[in-house]
Amino acid sequence: MVLTLLATYEGWVPYDMAASMMQGENIGTTITANIAALVGNYQAKRVARAHRIFNMIGVTLMRL
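RE: above sequence
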């Protein structure tokens, strides 16, 4: 995310592209949490699922 912000600040990446990149990075972190939760108990799986749902809702709302 820092590299995306820096590239936008320097003018190398347009703002709308940077916003899409940030949303993709946000969804990417949920995949890591869900993979880690595969070996966890039900509470870990529930937290990972909530993290994914929260980020998906945020991306959906930003796209409207």
